[in-house]
């Protein structure tokens, strides 16, 4: 059982050891891009209004008033749909010879959406907004943001391996095997997005009724 878990390619970037930092260096860059998006979104969110948050809600889930009023299933569906849009876009980008390089921007967009809502909450409601973010938004958003960053990394790596395999490798490139591995990785990312949506739903259920905006 241990061998099966450790051989899961979706968990390889979490492997420990002396070379762990070097192996995960590129993934850490994707995380830094994510945090850069959060920072930029937070600064932009201070001057944003509710109309802008409503327009971006489908993609980024920025409208916290809708989140607070949603039922359990609606909360789960909205959160999962938002993450699934990112995963689907990243998956398609990773299938092309150039799309994986554009996938680098996806963590930036994801971080910007989260930072936008956080910046608005802080600017409009101060401590109350920060507390709402910590209890309701942050747990699910943190996990889904890391998943989006990991998926973007896998898409980038997929494109890079395809380019090297087709144009630089001396041996024939096994695209079928490569595609199967890539699809398994993305399915694992999608499953983690479902888990983050479930976490989002549970946080809304437990804490959102303590807040009114």
> What structural class do helix, strand and pairing data support?
mainly alpha
Q: What is the succession of H and E elements?
A: HHHHHHHHHHH
Radius of gyration: 19 Å
Total number of strands: 0
The amount of helix comes to over 70%
Low-confidence stretches: 1-18
Largest sheet: none
* Shape verdict: elongated
Percent of residues in β-strands: under 5%
Terminal-residue CA separation = 49 Å
The total count of helices amounts to 11
Residue-averaged pLDDT, rounded? Answer: 80
Characteristics:
213 residues; mainly alpha
In short:
With 213 residues, the protein is an all-alpha fold. The protein has helices at 2-6, 20-23, 25-45, 50-55, 57-60, 64-69, 72-94, 99-102, 106-125, 127-167, 175-207.
Report on the architecture of this protein.
By secondary structure, this protein is mainly alpha-helical. The protein is 78% helix and 0% strand. The chain is built from eleven helices and no strands. α3 packs parallel to α9 and α7 packs parallel to α10. The longest helix is centred in the last third of the chain and has 41 residues. The protein is elongated. The N terminus is likely disordered.
